[in-house]
Amino acid sequence: MLWKRKMESVLKSRSRSISSLKVVWRKDQALDRAIEHDKRYKQCARVVKEVLNEPGQAIPLRYLEKRRQRMRLNHKAETFLNQNPGLFDLYYDRIKPKTEPVRFIRPTDRLRRFLEEERQIFLDNEPFIVSKLCKLLMMSKNKVVSADKLLHVKREFGFPNDFLVDLVPRYPQYFRLTGFPQEGKSFLELVNWNPEFAKSVIERRAEVESEILGIRVRPSFTVELPRGFVLKKEMREWVRDWMEVDYVSPYEDVSHLDQASREMEKRSVGVFHELLSLSLHKRIPVPILGKFCDEYRFSNAFSSTFTRHSGIFYLSLKGGIETAVLREAYKGDQLIGRDPLLRIKDKFVELLEEGWQQRAEQLRLKQEKVKEDMMLMAAKVAEYKSEAGA
C-alpha cells in the first residue's frame, strides 16, 4: 500500500500542469547589487549614444536637456556634464547662420580614442560575434529573426552599431538580409547551418567533463537554490522528475513537441539559458525577451519560468524592470563568466573613472582654496581686532 501511494504521488506530480505550479519569489540582494553596479555606466552610455547619433556628432546642450526623459536622466544635462568630465567638450556655435551662438557639446579627444579602441575590439572578436549571431538564428523557429528586433538587442549581446550594414554583408555564407532595417519589415535569415555553432553551453560543459572523467556525462543544468530558499513538497517532486527528463538542446527542431509538455519546458529553459549565456552580462530584461516570443516559441506566460526554476535563474525587480539573471554566471555580485566583448565596457569605465578622479581632484583643490581663504580672512580679522584694541 505504501508503494502504491508513492507511485500515485509520482504520477500526480508528473501529470500536474506547469501553470498550476507556483513558487514564491525571493529577493537576492547580491544579484540585485550586480545590476546596481552598472547603473551609472549605463546612464553615461545612453547619453554618449544620443550625441554620437547626431549629425556631426554634436548637439546643442538645450536639445539634450529636452531629451532627459528619453535618456532616463534624473538631473539636468549640464549637471551630468559636470559630474562626468572627459566625455564631452562644451563650445559655442550657431544653430542657424543668423541666430545667436548657443552652447553645444561634442565628444572629447579622450572619448574619440575610446571609440577607436572599441572598433579594434570588435574587429578582434569578429568571428565570436558572427558565431553569436548564427546561434540566435539557429535557435529560432524558422532560422529567421526580425532584423529590427536584433537591432534593439545589439547592446545586450555586444553587437556593433552597424553590424547589419557592415558585418552581415561580409558573411554571405551565413547570412541573408531581406527588406530594409529600421522600417519594421526586415529580416535576417540563416543561409548555412554550422554544426560547431549548434552546441549549447550546457552541452560543451558536459563534453569537457566527459573528457576529464573518462566517462560520458549527461548534459544537465546547474541548480543552486539561494540560501534559505525552500520549495514546497509538490514543487520539489515536480522539479526532481523534470530534472530526470533528457536535456533538449535549444538547437533541436521541437516542432513535434506539445507546448505544455515537460520536454518543451526543458527546451524553453535551455533556450533561456543559452540566450543569457550569449548575453554580455548573463542577464536580459524580461520585456526584451518578450519581443522574441514568436521566434523562439515562448509562451505568453514565459516569465514564470524564471521563478519556477529559481535554482537556475533569478528574476530581479531592481529599477522597476524585471530582469532574468543566470545564477551560475555570478559569484555573489561579481560576474565570473566574462564575455570577451566586455573589454569595451572595461575601457569605457576606465574613461569614466579618469573623469571622476579629475572632478574629485578639482573639488579637493577648490575646498582647500576655500579653507585657505577662510583662514586668511580669520587671520586678518584677528589682526584688525588686535590693532583696534591697541
Q: Biggest β-sheet, characterized?
A: 3 strands, antiparallel
Mean pLDDT, as a whole number?
87
Please write the string of helix (H) and strand (E) elements: HHHEHHHEEHHEHHHEEHHHEHHHEEEEH
- Approximate strand percentage: 5-15%
List keywords for this structure.
single chain, three-stranded antiparallel beta sheet, 18 helices, 390 residues
Please give the structural blueprint.
Blueprint: H1 2-15, H2 29-37, H3 39-52, E1 59-60, H4 61-66, H5 68-71, H6 77-83, E2 88-93, E3 102-107, H7 109-124, H8 126-138, E4 144-146, H9 147-152, H10 154-157, H11 163-167, E5 175-178, E6 187-190, H12 201-213, H13 233-244, H14 262-278, E7 283-285, H15 286-290, H16 293-296, H17 304-308, E8 313-316, E9 323-326, E10 330-331, E11 334-335, H18 342-389
Antiparallel strand pairs: 1-3, 2-3, 4-6, 5-6, 7-9, 8-9, 10-11
Helix pairs in contact: 7-18
Organism: Flemingia macrophylla
Pfam families: PORR
Protein name: PORR domain-containing protein
